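Quick one, tokens below. Sequence please?
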């Protein structure tokens, strides 16, 4: 059973003008969307926003897929892009391509 406050705060990136130099650094491109924490404990699944708000009802397909993972307990951070986000960005991309 999930504890009453199972949310784990995410690491927060720091914005810089340029990435650090050296071979020991890894970088990732920042994409827009919802950063969410997926939690599974037995049959119970919860999807939290990066601020700890329960988003499970917003992403029922992800909750169903999480419930089907062949593991008893897991915590996963993912970035979710919704259809509305894709449509909004497709429109922006079309505007840029017309210039």
């Amino acid at each position: 059973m999930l504890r009453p406050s199972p949310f784990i705060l995410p690491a927060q990136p720091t914005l810089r003008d340029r990435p650090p130099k050296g071979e020991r650094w890894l970088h990732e491109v920042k994409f827009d969307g919802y950063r969410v924490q997926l939690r599974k404990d037995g049959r119970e699944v919860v999807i939290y926003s990066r601020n700890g708000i329960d988003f499970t009802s917003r992403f029922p397909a992800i909750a169903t897929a999480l419930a089907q993972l062949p593991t008893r307990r897991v915590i996963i951070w993912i970035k979710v892009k919704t259809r509305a986000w894709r449509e909004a960005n497709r429109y922006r991309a079309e505007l840029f391509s017309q210039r």
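The beta strands are 34-41, 44-49, 73-80. The helical segments are 60-67, 83-97.
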